[in-house]
């Protein structure tokens, strides 16, 4: 089913004042695809994800989810954010809630699941990310890697169709990076559609179907991992990779 289009970014522009941060971005994401977005700091990667998730309002162009504009007036943004979840660099867990509550709360409030069903689902997901022993812990009692695994379980708990990851390992101590990358690899193998902003080039090469290189607000080059990492066509892609590989 990889031909089914799930997200389409069309001629997307985003400016902050007179600073144009995204310049005519076009991107198709197919169901089940794992897409990595690489590029230097400040190139617009986070802004692109934040527009896709409507945390920022595009200043031009359109974004279609199942061929329907997410910018139309009657679009249900709350439900959309459940379907297109986001995992942040800084985890963004609810610090006043424990681990179990963090993974239940969206299910009960947004999806209107009853507490028992939400708990069962939460426990399954926490089990899968290895966080079931920590259900009663508060986020600040956990390591960064543990918090990020809870954040991934929380996003999964909404039965998302797409998960967006914004540098999910770059705030972690090095010894915790692998536990989060391994969790993401297993997710990728479930057939979930994922868009991952990352500086972990080996990971991007291993898990992605498509790699996009962003440079100064422009999607400079898109291809398979082999095309981007072994045979980059653009000089700016080659120069960027030289610094990372
Ligand atoms: P990346 O994630 O690739 O590092 P960002 O999307 O965070 O890049 O930022 C791209 C550019 O947009 C940067 O120059 C940044 O300063 C600017 N920018 C991002 N968010 C805002 C904002 N809310 N207001 C003003 N400028 C912003
Ligand atoms: Mg960023």
Automatic annotation (TrEMBL):
Report the locations given in the UniProt record: Cell membrane
Would you tell me the Gene Ontology cellular component terms?
plasma membrane
Q: Which CDD domains does this chain map to?
A: ABC_HisP_GlnQ
Domain ABC transporter: start-end pairs: 7-241
Q: Which InterPro entries match?
A: AAA+_ATPase, ABC_ATPase_HisP-typ, ABC_transporter-like_ATP-bd, MetN_ABC_transporter-like, P-loop_NTPase
A GO molecular function assigned to this protein is: ATP hydrolysis activity
Q: Could you say which protein family the record assigns here? A: Belongs to the ABC transporter superfamily.
Under what name is this protein listed? Answer: ArtM
Origin organism lineage: Bacteria, Bacillati, Bacillota, Bacilli, Lactobacillales
């Amino acid at each position: 089913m990889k031909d089914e289009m799930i997200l389409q970014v069309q001629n997307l522009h985003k400016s902050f004042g007179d600073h144009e941060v995204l310049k005519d971005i076009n991107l198709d994401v197919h169901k089940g695809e794992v897409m990595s977005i690489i590029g230097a700091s400040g190139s617009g990667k986070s802004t692109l994800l934040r527009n896709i998730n409507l945390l920022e309002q595009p200043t031009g162009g359109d974004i279609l989810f199942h061929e329907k504009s997410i910018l139309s007036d009657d679009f249900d943004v709350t439900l959309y954010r459940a379907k297109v979840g986001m995992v942040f660099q800084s985890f963004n867990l609810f610090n006043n809630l424990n681990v179990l509550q963090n993974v239940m709360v969206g299910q009960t409030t947004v999806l209107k699941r009853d507490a028992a069903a939400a708990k069962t689902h939460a426990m399954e997901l926490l089990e899968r990310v290895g966080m079931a022993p920590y259900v009663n812990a508060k986020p600040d009692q956990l390591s960064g890697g543990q918090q990020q695994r809870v954040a991934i379980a929380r996003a999964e708990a909404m039965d998302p169709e797409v998960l967006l990851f914004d540098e999910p390992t770059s705030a972690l101590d090095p010894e915790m990076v692998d536990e989060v990358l391994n969790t993401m690899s297993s997710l990728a193998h479930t057939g979930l559609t994922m868009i991952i902003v990352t500086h972990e080039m080996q990971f991007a090469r291993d898990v992605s179907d498509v790699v996009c290189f962003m440079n100064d607000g422009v999607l400079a080059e898109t291809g398979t991992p082999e095309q981007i990492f072994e045979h980059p066509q653009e000089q700016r892609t080659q120069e960027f990779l030289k610094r990372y590989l």
